[in-house]
Amino acid sequence: MTSSRPRLRAVERLPLARDDEAWIVLRDPLGLSEPVTVPSEAGPLLDLLDGQRTPAQIRQSLLMRGALDIPTADIEALVADLSDAGLLDDPRFRARWQAHHEAFLEAPTRAPRHAGTLYPDDPETLRATLSRALPGRDGRFAQRRAALALICPHQPAQAIPDLLDATARDLPPAEQLDAIVILGTDHGVGLTPYAATGKRYQTPLGEAPAAARLLAELEEQLPWITREEIRHRAGHSVELAVCALHYLYEDSCPPILPILCGQSSLARREGLRAEVDDFLAAMGRALARRRVLLWTSAELGHAGPAYGGPALPPDASARLERRDRALLQSLLDGRPERLLRACLEDDPQLGRASGSAALVTLARLLPLGYQATLTGYRVASAPGVEPGLAGLAGLRVYEHGVGE
Prior knowledge:
With 404 residues, the chain is an alpha/beta fold. It folds into two domains: 90 residues, Outer Surface Protein A, domain 3, CATH 3.90.930; 292 residues, LigB-like (Protocatechuate 4,5-dioxygenase, Chain B). It is 35% helix and 19% strand. Strand 1 and strand 2 form a beta hairpin. The longest helix is centred in the last third of the chain and has 19 residues.
């Protein structure tokens, strides 16, 4: 049964051009529902699915705005289709969410979601792919001074071999680590600013061990930290990082704590700000007692229709690079608050930096006096037919001003 006042969930709207026709693809960031495509003319109708209007009132609003003349029966049919697809915030979706959530909680491990699509699902093929991007694996571990943190784009290894090769160096040997904390970019909309899971991530190369003690310590102080761990079900930023780490450390891989950083961690609202402050304080205490590598899986600018933004201006690549390099400079200078202010600036054509939440979180967790080394930056075209640009950067961080 659909609601009499339908509300569209917080889904991604991606433009699609095909055969001289324009469409909108509605995609569920949680991966619980299949994508649905509607004509681009339906955009104003989708905006009115806010839980405040009946289909008849939606029709009247569209007529008053001079936007569309759609019979009420057609609006009701679209609403029913969206409900069937699980894209409305209604009892049907909540039942679907509950079933997926219970199944996820009951599973002992987090199954790979993107093997066979973003990266090879065959272990030997994946190992060969990673070996080409990360040649000389044994030489990547620090002989003298080890990196404290890394920033890598959440791209398949075969797409960023240069950045991955240049960034994944001076790694702490396994025996010098108590844990690896992955700060992953979360493109979904969550209720909590961060979401952790204690499940072991499966990869084609095997299971990565979980940092159970570290998570238990955080849960004592942050009861909400695993409340939305289902966000780990579909996200690829952590999955790709785990694959690379499992390849680098092999069977001696230290225990991993994956944490997804949501956009709400940047919010100024009092309740969310308090949760962010509590998280940073708890993580700070935990890191002070452990030897930890912080691996941040994040990217910079995502602009253009491929990423749900407007058409690219002629100078988009140059503008994106200028803005991205300014963000990176805040990280290089150890200025987390300046980085936060820059990340909150919403350029109407370029949008916000994709990995803002993870980047700001890392900057706030790093100790005073750190030194960051930029290992590479480039603007890459989005895959597929829709135009888009992404800013990809690698960074390596050392403690107390210790560099290469």
